[in-house]
Design brief:
Layout (H helix, E strand, L loop, with lengths): L1 E6 L5 H7 L17 H6 L7 E6 L3 H11 L7 E5 L9 H10 L7 E6 L2 E3 L1 H9 L3 E6 L10 E5 L4 E4 L13 E13 L2 H10 L2 H4 L4 H8 L7 E5 L3 E3 L3 H14 L1
Parallel strand pairs: 1-2, 1-4, 2-3, 6-10
Antiparallel strand pairs: 4-9, 5-11, 6-9, 7-8, 7-9
Length: 252
Amino acid sequence: MKILLLTVAGMSTRFSSSLGKSCLKCIYYENNFKESILYNIISKDVYFDKYVIVGGYRFQELKDAVYTELQQYADKIHLIENTHFCDWGSGYSLYKGLEFIQQDQFDEIVFAEGDLYVDDISFVDVCDSKKNVVTCNTEPILANKAVAYYYDKDYKLHYIYDTAHETLCVKEEFRGIFNSGQIWKFIEPERVRKIYKQMKSDEWKDTNLRFIQHYFGDMNKEKYEIIQLRDWINCNTIEDYKKILQLKIRKG
């Protein structure tokens, strides 16, 4: 079983501020729903047995949009509500998604944050990989917007980030540093289940990178690959959204 897990529970604060009104950015569009970020990733030419979408902020609007605009996927979509979207971190959305699929006999999970645009070819590369996948993009690594990770001298992965968006710090020698593409693939179900059970509640209330670090942190580098995403936009503002539209127009 192949599962796409999307988290879209956040309050879209920066996007709403740039737009001048409150909205849920993953379902925002200007002309038709096919312009939305959510449609872009759900409609990729990749087969999934399940689409698990974790929402929170404006959950009823998300629910209405999904079952109105994504009817062709309705039998595969499972909407999960995160009621702590405003007081706990992104880790809890991931927890709710993993909680829902614990009883499934899944083979792999592609996990993506729901405010991303990524080109079709790169997404297919992630899904077609026979290994666990960590992604990166080509944007500059800036503390006020990036989630980064690096190889230490033993090629172990370490994620670095600052929720205050001020500075990033690496306190050891490293062999390479990357700007995270915020899409991952897990192909080891028992490893997923073990970490899910062992993580403490306070960790789940923090960023989703707590789980990611547990999953990849001590993994042998032969077990995963890093895939560079060709076109990648993290949609934080209406200006980012317009860049996505322009990019899609150029690509036809």
